[in-house]
Amino acid sequence: MKRGLGNRGLLEFLFEELIALCLVFLVTGCNSSSYTPPPDTLAPSAPFGLITTMVSATQINLAWTASADNVGVTGYIVERCQGAGCSSFAPIATPNVTTFSDTGLTASTSYSYRVRATDAAGNLSSFSSTSTATTSSSDTAAPTAPANLTATAASSGQINLAWTASTDNVGVTGYRVERCQGAGCSNFAQIAAPTTSAFNDTGLTASTSYSYRVRAIDAAGNLSTFSLTVTTTTMATPDTTPPSAPTNLTATAASATQINLSWTVSTDNVGVTGYRVERCQGAGCSNFAQIAAPTTSAFNDTGLTASTSYSYRVRAIDAAGNLSTFSLTVTTTT
Description:
about 325 residues; mainly beta; Immunoglobulin-like; 1 helix; about 40% strand; rod-shaped; disordered N terminus
């Protein structure tokens, strides 16, 4: 303390010293190199919306939505494992942007990916959801075209197809069958993808023409050229209507060994193809047996026994095999 200072001088001196100390504190305290900010312990948010896209047989591209951080995201860690549902993830890249192209992969192989963010303090976010993609095949060779395509009408509603199998450098996995309606049509549409060299096309319309062509496909999705086109027509609707029964049957003895039959022809919705003549011996007999199948409305029964009675009946048949009811029975004696 300075000597000779009065009370007033002492107060002024102390005030000046206080001001000086405050100035020193303000200057050195605010600019001191020993000051340490509080540590950043807050992790970034997890990346989301991870998308994996197959680019080729050896490359898959990744993209995701950026993470957020209280200070700032400095980059990402991309992890990968092989196979869908795998769990043996390992880091493969540390991009500082929200995309990554993974190259040098194996063809026809599935890879799963997940991503997390990091900040300057080394805080790691939780992982994004996992996304899986499969590389394409390195096979670019198409199968040979199916050969010897045939189309056979099996019924009024079905056509059966068959062809010679295609070949491929790796292996044919199936076929694509296309159809359009009518001979010479061009508006083909795929109707089936069988794995064998045959296909039965059902649910078709009776008496209708259909055209077909077939091509092969392999595991890499390579498609062959088309087979030759074949056309066939479904059968008509099945005829289930029988002819009418023959009428006016007559039996006339022509000799001791022959009886001549005639009748009025039957009618049919499609057409009568013939008749079935049955005979038994005696008036009132019932043990009829077929003896002839004429295609006209007359028949001469020969080789009979003299002075013997014979009974006859006739029914008609059409192309579908439908049989009419029998005519009335007639009896005569040689």
